[in-house]
Specification:
332 residues; alpha/beta; Rossmann fold; five-stranded parallel β-sheet; four-stranded parallel β-sheet; 13 helices; 13% strand; globular; binds phosphoric acid mono(formamide)ester; binds norvaline
């Protein structure tokens, strides 16, 4: 049984706890598919705080809450007093009096930590600059579904390694014993402190962790190829040029997929810039002439791309996180 009240970062979870959440997600997914009700948290109320935009995370929390019998209230980046007229500490103590659980998506990890410290109810990280733990559960459930195992799998993450996705892949791969390669320019690798922490974890789990600027070394024989956007939410538009210059050699395209195992899967947390059908994609094209950024259209749309299974798994895994932590916290 999970003995955790919150999910702030997977650094706080043991490999066994992470696997337990993935197994619970599988069970809840099966129940949902078979129409078996699982309203284990009937009557509880949760609040969803989004200081940054979201499609998947917001919808996954709302649908999961409804499936579990809970009511969810959404608060966006405007319309509340949080952070403007009221400190996070005070907001936490107010919300904790009204709600049984809090989801937070925003900027600093210390904000979600403050909510957990002062609200007195379970808190879940729906993405901060530093980590995206619920995304990891969905990604590794998807990998498990396609590959049948996680330990020893060869996985490469291409791109910006020092933000939420890059940090979180490194942590999860270390915890679950993968053969993991961070592939990108040295300046965008996870910071030294996190790298050392994960190398320590790897000693106990048998994970192999490599950091390389060499695309061929990174992609060779991989079972899983992952990437993320080159500029994340909350970063200034002015970083686009510098980021494109740094990351263009690390675009996931047919050549990269050809270096991987022929049965390799491609994953991406989404949203993704792979064509000109988005406003930002078009603006970047007009300025820099690129019609696909972190991944090309042909890879995104190829049969090896499992990004929509991955997106669906956000629902089942977020449901598992809420259920496991609330069961522990409320001794249900
Ligand atoms: N992957 C992810 O977190 O998507 P949203 O930004 O749509 O929530
Ligand atoms: N790194 C991205 C992930 C989006 C789900 C961002 O923070 O915008």
């Amino acid at each position: 049984m999970i003995k955790q009240d919150h999910l702030l970062t997977l650094l706080d979870y043991s490999p066994e706890e992470i696997m337990e959440l993935i197994e619970l997600s599988k069970k809840l997914k099966e129940e949902k598919k078979q129409g078996i009700p699982h309203r284990h948290l009937e009557g509880k109320n949760i609040v969803l705080l989004f200081e940054k935009d979201s499609t998947r995370t917001r919808c996954a929390f709302e649908v999961a809450a409804a499936d579990l019998g809970m009511n969810a209230v959404y608060i966006g980046s405007s319309g509340s007093q949080m952070g403007k007229k009221e400190s996070i500490k005070d907001t936490a103590r107010v919300l904790g009096r009204m709600f049984d659980g809090i989801e937070y998506r925003g900027f600093a990890q210390k904000t979600v930590e403050c909510l957990a410290e002062y609200s007195g109810v379970p808190v879940w990280n729906g993405l901060t600059n530093e980590y995206h733990p619920t995304q990891m559960l969905a990604d590794f459930l998807t990998i498990l579904e396609y590959k049948g195992c996680l330990k020893g799998l060869k996985m490469a993450y291409f791109g910006d390694g020092r933000y939420n996705m890059g940090n979180s892949y490194l942590i999860t791969a270390a915890k679950l014993g993968l053969d993991y390669r961070m592939v990108g320019p040295k300046d965008l690798w996870p910071n030294e402190e996190l790298r050392n922490k994960c190398l320590e974890i790897a000693k106990a789990t048998g994970a192999k962790l490599a950091f390389t600027e060499d695309v061929k070394v990174g992609a060779k024989d991989c079972d899983v190829i992952a990437t993320d956007v080159w500029v994340s939410m909350g970063e200034a538009d002015s970083v686009w040029k510098e980021r494109i210059d740094l990351l263009k050699p690390y675009q996931v395209n047919k050549d990269v997929m050809a270096l991987a195992d022929p049965k390799a899967i491609f994953i991406h947390c989404l949203p993704s810039f792979h064509n000109l059908e988005t406003k930002i994609g078009m603006e970047v094209y007009e300025k820099f002439g690129l019609n696909g950024l972190e991944v090309t259209e042909d890879v995104f749309e190829c049969p090896q791309s499992v990004v929509f299974d991955e997106a669906e798994n956000r629902l089942h895994t977020i449901k598992a996180v809420m259920l496991a932590t609330m069961k522990h916290f409320y001794k249900i």
